[in-house]
Amino acid sequence: MAQQQRALLTRQLILSSAAEIFDEKGFDSASIAEILDRSEVTKGALYFHFPSKEALAQAILEKAVTTEGVPPQELKLQELVDIGLLLAHRLPREPVLSAALRLSTDRSARFRFGTRWPDWLQVSTGLLQEAREHGETLPGLDPGEVAYLLLCGWTGTRVVGEGMPDRGSRLTEDVAALHRIMLPGIALPELLPRIEVTVARAKRLHRTWVRKNAAATRS
């Protein structure tokens, strides 16, 4: 078991190091030598877990779609907002998530590996369909169309913000603002006061998730 745990930790270390370099330089400019140097593992260890740089990119993209840390909510629209808020809070803190977005928006990498946009659309569309069935949304709402626009808005907020020094560190704040602006065109007016769209909520969700992970690791 100890050996298995060490192997998992080594794999995660390699993946995180590769993610940092992909995020900093892009896939094409990153090299295996830099990943080895950053992770401080042997070439044999790296190739044991990942046979190529392409395999590293694929493994990063496999982790792009995550709803970890978001518990089910009575209002499905709250759950949808929570996913966007928590992801915004996690992304600058987790190289793998940040690199997955970089790979998805990099033209060369996108054509080589594809993206996880369809999977994110499926998650968001499913929650919006549930919200519609529960009577939370405005009449005539198209869940797929709204999910697509939310995805475009979230991604654009990150991509544009990175190129603006005064907004690069404000992803959670900007994603919260995006949801506050869009929700009146999605939710029934009487439900809007019940949906919390704040940075404080993102931080609470993150703290709770981190504590649960720490407790699970100790046990």
Automatic annotation (TrEMBL):
Keyword Acetylation: no
Start-end of DNA-binding region: 31-50
Keyword annotations: DNA-binding, Transcription, Transcription regulation
InterPro entries noted in UniProt: ArpA-like, CprB_TetR_C, DNA-bd_HTH_TetR-type_CS, Homeodomain-like_sf, HTH-type_TetR-like_transc_reg, HTH_TetR, Tet_transcr_reg_TetR-rel_C_sf
One Pfam family hit: TetR_C_45
Transmembrane segments: none
Domain HTH tetR-type residue range list: 8-68
Domain of life, per lineage: Bacteria
NCBIfam families: ScbR_bind_reg
Protein known as: ScbR family autoregulator-binding transcription factor
Organism taxonomic ancestry: Bacteria, Bacillati, Actinomycetota, Actinomycetes, Kitasatosporales
